[in-house]
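Wed. Picked up where I left off yesterday with Ferredoxin--nitrite reductase. The coffee machine is broken again, so keeping this brief.
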Amino acid sequence: MQSTSQARDLFSRFVNWFSNSGSDKPAINQKEGGRDVFSRLMNTISG
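Structure written out below (tokens, as returned):
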């Protein structure tokens, strides 16, 4: 059985690989410069 640090390391490497394999999408803004609902929700949660 793997130790917790080894499992965490494998997970970290997978997440890093997965995030590096994608490409960034341009920001989505609605008319008059307003942000979409999802962006506002994420900003509220993270702020």
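Quick read: The radius of gyration is 17 Å.
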